[in-house]
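Today's session is about reading a structure prediction critically. Students often jump straight to the picture, but the first step is always the sequence itself: look for stretches that repeat, for charged clusters, for runs of hydrophobic residues. Only then move on to the predicted structure, which in these notes is written as discrete structure tokens rather than atom positions. Here is the chain we will use throughout the hour.
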Amino acid sequence: MARIIRDPKEIVHKLGGASAVARLFGIRPSAVLNWLTRGYLPPATYVPLRDALKKQGLKADESLWSWHETP
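Below is the predicted structure for this chain, in token form.
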């Protein structure tokens, strides 16, 4: 059974840091750091991050993603 991660910072750490996660999405590391400042992950990141974590035997709590529209 996969361990469940309940902190977005731990997700980024487990996947190699802000630069590594940014490369997954073709964005700058500062954008990843902005997600962490807000305390949640954008919905479009769910599947890629879920799959990357699964490869490491990890799983993230789905409440870490913002499932609502932001203005």
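Discussion point for the tutorial: The chain has one domain: 3-64.
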